């Protein structure tokens, strides 16, 4: 932990030199992204934390305690304690305690706390500043240069990967059609322009992809869409070639990435829509300084992108068959190989990656594979490294949560493999998780119901045994885009961001992934992707549209971990039908030995 202690000391020296009493370090980039490029991994560099969500607060003065805290949610309760030194950092759970709560409790009267206005929203900055002023006579101030960059001397440069064309047939609609829809929305909102900051929104709107963020095929850039549908794209010039320019057409003007501030100034006197959740404070400040009228509104691409075009769902179905075959080959290998010893979390992840690459269509993983054996499985978002890499040994449960990026679809799937004979407790917990998974898969709900309204379906079998899991049940997913996509989510109502209250609509895709985690021993999660589809209910109210889920993921669910006595007749029927479809779908594309193994795995319970 010594390098991180030194980095914390160096940061405090910079803060003192700049007359700052503290600084807030989020895990994001200038686009409010969840997954960020290596150049923006400031939180990981400072603390050693490798999760995908978190924030740190550092005070220059350590006389009132450690003077540093790292904030994570329930997914990372174990992981943060393994990766971040408790001698230097307080571990703070969110949303129970917010960054503002901690700052108010720890800063001194009149302290000045800095923040990077390109890495926080205006709403967060204003709310935090208001509390500091009211309760501590302290202030939150924007900084021109991020102080971490002053001490991170070998910080990587942003990616130079090109922006590439995503063909219209795969997208289902042309960029011109999509931009015309945005123009119509602007007219309805009586706005002159909208600033798009989310990288996946820009990729979807313009039918482009990129390689600037590991596992997410996007390009760093901004877009301003005008009321006539013309668009100003701000992207590094070296990323744009002649084919891309031809694809974008004359209605999309290309500017340098660093020219955005000038472009925002050019919106002086105009009514400009800005997403308060996705736009950095610096963007709002520049527009305000220019004299533009800011209209807070959700990025209009978000919902359009979430409701998949038939071409996108068709592509995903093809990708799911291809990916399911690779995963099934892996599960066959795992059952035959892992109990014999000699394999590790890293070697198992490498094996699965190799099988996906053999398809010839694999572009990337959709996220860093969670290859977790034994106690590591109890960290829902565990990230294996050379330092943490553990041998896979008898008596353990091996959890593998992985996904792939194919041009026709993005996948995300979790399965659990017992290494040897599972205990009765493991089978009980696994079966309860399966019951929750089936409850979501078979759920029927009215059009407009939220994910929060059905989240409890997945938890009830666990609740009945006094158990639960500390993460959402389902997230949205992109089409050859981000593995985590909003606005829809299946989660408890108090889930950070309020996404679980978003109405569910036909055409949205989500994950179905309840779990159970026993600290120090094992983790269980069963994850398939599902598509929201209309449901016809005989005898139902003819004016009431009902919805349900179509399962999209095909791979066997480990039968030796199931206690059939805990399943109802309807649950057994669902499981048998699912496995029959797995066999019918994957059997024709698998070779003899694996096909025979799959047939045995898919036999009725």
Please characterize this protein's 3D structure.
- The chain is of the alpha+beta class.
- The protein contains 19 helices and 28 strands.
- The strands form 8 sheets. Strands 4-3-2-1-5-6 form a 6-stranded mixed β-sheet, sandwiched between helices. The protein has a 6-stranded mixed β-sheet with strand order 12-11-10-8-13-14. A 4-stranded antiparallel β-sheet has the order 21-28-27-24.
- Strand 10 and strand 11 form a beta hairpin.
- The mean pLDDT is 96.
Short key terms for the protein model shown above:
alpha+beta; 19 helices; 605 residues
* Beta-strand fraction estimate: 15-25%
Largest sheet: 6 strands, mixed
| Alpha carbon gap, first and last residue | 49 Å
Supply the number of helical segments: 19
Percent range of helical residues: 25-40%
> Order of strands across the biggest sheet?
4-3-2-1-5-6
Number of strands: 28
Q: Which shape, going by the Cα principal axes?
A: globular
Average residue pLDDT: 96
Briefly summarize what is shown.
The chain is of the alpha+beta class and 605 residues long. 35% of the residues lie in helices and 20% in strands. The two termini are 49 Å apart.
């Amino acid at each position: 932990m010594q390098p991180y202690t030194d980095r914390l000391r160096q940061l405090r020296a910079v803060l003192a030199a700049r007359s700052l009493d503290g600084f807030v370090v989020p895990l994001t980039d200038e686009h409010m992204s969840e997954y960020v490029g290596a150049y923006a991994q400031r939180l990981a560099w400072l603390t050693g934390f490798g999760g995908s969500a978190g924030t740190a607060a550092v005070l220059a003065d350590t006389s009132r305690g450690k003077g540093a805290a790292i904030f994570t949610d329930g997914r990372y309760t174990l992981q943060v304690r393994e990766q971040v030194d408790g001698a230097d950092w307080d571990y703070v759970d969110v949303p129970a305690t917010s960054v503002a709560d901690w700052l108010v409790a720890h800063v001194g009267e009149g302290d000045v706390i800095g923040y990077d206005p390109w890495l926080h929203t205006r709403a967060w900055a204003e709310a935090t500043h208001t509390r500091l002023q009211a309760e501590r006579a302290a202030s939150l101030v924007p900084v021109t240069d991020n102080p971490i960059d002053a001490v991170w001397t070998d910080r990587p440069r942003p990616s130079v990967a090109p922006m590439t064309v995503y063909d219209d047939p795969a997208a289902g609609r042309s960029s011109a059609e999509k931009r015309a829809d945005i123009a119509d929305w602007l007219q309805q909102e009586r706005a002159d322009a909208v600033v798009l900051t989310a990288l996946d929104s820009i990729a979807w709107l313009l039918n482009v992809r990129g390689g600037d963020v590991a596992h997410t095929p996007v390009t760093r850039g901004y877009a301003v869409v005008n009321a006539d549908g013309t668009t100003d794209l701000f992207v590094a010039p070296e990323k744009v070639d002649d084919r891309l320019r031809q694809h974008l057409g004359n209605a999309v003007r290309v500017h340098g990435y660093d020219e955005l501030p000038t472009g925002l100034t050019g919106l002086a006197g105009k009514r400009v829509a800005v997403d308060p959740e996705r736009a950095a404070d610096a963007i709002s400040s520049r527009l305000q300084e220019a004299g533009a009228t800011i209209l807070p509104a959700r990025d209009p691409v978000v919902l359009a992108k979430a409701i998949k075009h038939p071409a996108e769902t068709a592509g995903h179905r093809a990708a799911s068959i291809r990916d399911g075959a690779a995963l099934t080959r892996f599960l066959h290998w795992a059952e035959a190989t892992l109990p014999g010893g000699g394999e590790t979390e890293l070697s198992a992840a490498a094996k699965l990656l190799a099988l996906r690459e053999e398809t010839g269509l694999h572009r990337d993983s959709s996220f860093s594979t969670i290859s977790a054996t034994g106690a590591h499985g109890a960290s829902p978002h565990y990230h294996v490294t050379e330092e943490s890499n553990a041998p896979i040994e008898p008596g353990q449960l091996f959890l593998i949560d992985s996904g792939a990026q194919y041009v026709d679809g993005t996948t995300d799937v979790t399965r659990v493999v017992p290494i040897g004979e599972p205990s009765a407790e493991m089978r009980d917990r696994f079966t309860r998780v399966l019951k929750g998974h089936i409850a979501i898969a078979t759920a029927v709900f009215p059009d407009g119901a939220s994910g929060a309204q059905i989240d409890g379906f997945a938890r009830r079998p666990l609740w009945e045994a006094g158990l639960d899991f500390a993460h959402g049940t389902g997230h949205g997913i992109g089409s050859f885009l981000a593995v985590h996509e909003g606005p829809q989510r299946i989660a408890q109502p108090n889930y950070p961001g309020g996404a679980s209250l978003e109405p569910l609509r036909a055409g949205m895709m989500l994950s179905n992934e309840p779990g159970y985690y026993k600290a120090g021993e094992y983790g269980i999660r069963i994850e398939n992707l599902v598509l929201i589809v209309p449901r016809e209910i005989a005898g139902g109210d003819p004016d009431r549209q009902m919805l349900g889920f179509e399962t999209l993921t095909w791979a066997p669910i480990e039968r030796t971990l199931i206690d059939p006595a805990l399943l109802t007749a309807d649950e057994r029927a669902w499981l048998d039908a699912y496995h029959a479809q797995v066999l019918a779908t994957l059997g024709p594309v698998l070779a003899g030995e694996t096909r025979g193994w799959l047939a045995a795995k898919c036999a009725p319970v």
